[in-house]
Structure formats: structure tokens, C-alpha cells
Amino acid sequence: MRETDWVDRIVCAAALAWADDGEVLATGIGAVPRLAASLAMLTVNTELMMTDSEAWLVREPVPLGPRGSDEPKRETWMGFSRIFDNVWGGKRHAMVGPTQIDRHGQANISMVGPDYRKPRAQMLGVRGFPGNSINHANSFFVPNHSPKVFVAGEVDMVASAGYNAARLPRGWSFDDIDLRLIVTNLCVMDFGGPARQVRIRSLHPGVSAQQVQQATGFPLHVPHEIAETAAPTDAQLALIERLDPHGLRASALG
Q: What HEC string does 68-105 produce?
């Protein structure tokens, strides 16, 4: 088995998050989400918009890593003001990597510890998570599925909105929150269980539903039949190699 076989399967599974979005701005934070968004743009949703990570929309996804003499195929200016137009208008779908996620889909990238004034670990702060989570679709990528990420109670700092009625902004309903896929090193999940309970959607080869539940701090919805996460096709593998010429994805799962 190649070093990247497992992560390639995960990239292909994550790319399906954007399959039915049409013309929206795809943002992947980190190597796997970015590769997944790029693969989606080249395969399952050719209407996707992507930037060069600077200030331009591109006709083709920009490969990971050093560009050398290759210049991105830029189309038009996409500065922050236009980014925010897409964010506020719901025309964006981001895949992000939170430090913690709870049963409601609330995510934390700010700090870890019971006391916000004296955190055990200080991270990025909430950054754009609050506005993103109430304005456009979001998916999650978790490289190490464990109860430390999928916590038993509420996340230590609620940085983004989820399906928690007690924390919804005034006048909002669950229909205003759009959480899609959760892709991990063990499985693919979504919020398709009863009352938007997190549901196992597919299992990676050799992984059982029991293993996933044991690695999760809250009860999951486990369907009677669960598909195996599909293997990449030869065409998908060729595209992934092109999009990651330096093999940066090899270390994406830690």
C-alpha cells in the first residue's frame, strides 16, 4: 500500500461535500480540504469557484506547495470585499478543521480548558467562524478521530453555530444553519440522523461502527447498513497527483 492510499480515499470522499453546490466559492482550510475542493472543481462540480489563496479567482485549482515557474490561471479579481459578498450571501462552502466538535456541530478553534481566562492551550481565537457558520455551508475535516475532538459535552469555546437551540441567534432556526459532512481518518459522517443527530455515513476499509463510536464522546446514529467509503478511481488518483506534486498530503493525518 502506498503511503498516500488512505489519505487519497479521504480526499475523494471529502470532495463530495461540494458535489451539489453549483456555483459557490469553495474554501478548503488545510491540505486535505484544499485538495478535496480542488478535486471537486475538476470532477463532481465544475461550476465551483476557487481562488489562488491571494486575491484572484482561478480557472483551475492551484496545486499545493511551491509553484516554481507555473503561474495560476487567473480569471478575475477576488479581493476581500468580494469574498465577504459571497460569505454574507450564502455563496460559499468551507471545509475547516476544528480542534473540538460537539454533538450539536458547534466547533472550537479558540482555546482548550474549562476556564476561558486561564486556558490549558490557546489557539487561533474564533476568527471568522461565527459569521461563516450562520451565513454559508460548512463541513469539517478531522485527521485524528478521537473523544478529544468529538467531545462528550459542549466544546470549551463555542466558536461557530450548530444545531443547539439554546445558542441560536434571536430569530434564527435550525434551517438557517447548514452543516454538511464530517470527514475523518475513520469514516464520513453527516447530520442526517433523527433530530440532526450526527450519523455515520460511510466507514473506511477495516473500520467498524463500534470503533467510530468508541472514538466519539457522544452517541452517534448508526444505520443498519453502512457503505464502505469508495476507493479512488485511476482518474481521481491522477488528478490528486497533479494537484499535490510535492506529496504534501502524505503527512496530513499526522
A: CCCCCCEEEECCHHHHHHHHHCCCEEEEECCCEECCCC
Q: Are 44 and 23 contacting, i.e. CB atoms less than 8 angstroms apart?
A: no
Whether the per-residue pLDDT at 3 is higher than 80: the answer is no
44 close to 16: Cβ distance less than 8 angstroms: yes
3-state class of 170 per DSSP? coil
Residue 98 to residue 142: CA distance in whole angstroms:
7
pTM over 0.70: yes
For residue range 112-136, what is the model confidence (pLDDT) as tens digits?
A: 999 888 999 999 889 889 989 999 9
What pLDDT shows up at residue 170?
86
Residues 136 and 90 sit within 8 Å (Cβ to Cβ): yes
5-249 CATH pick, 3.40.1080.10, 2.160.20.80, 3.40.50.300, 3.40.220.10 = 3.40.1080.10
C-alpha pair distances (Å), 216 with each of 33, 55, 164, 203 = 21, 38, 18, 14
pLDDT on residue 1: 54
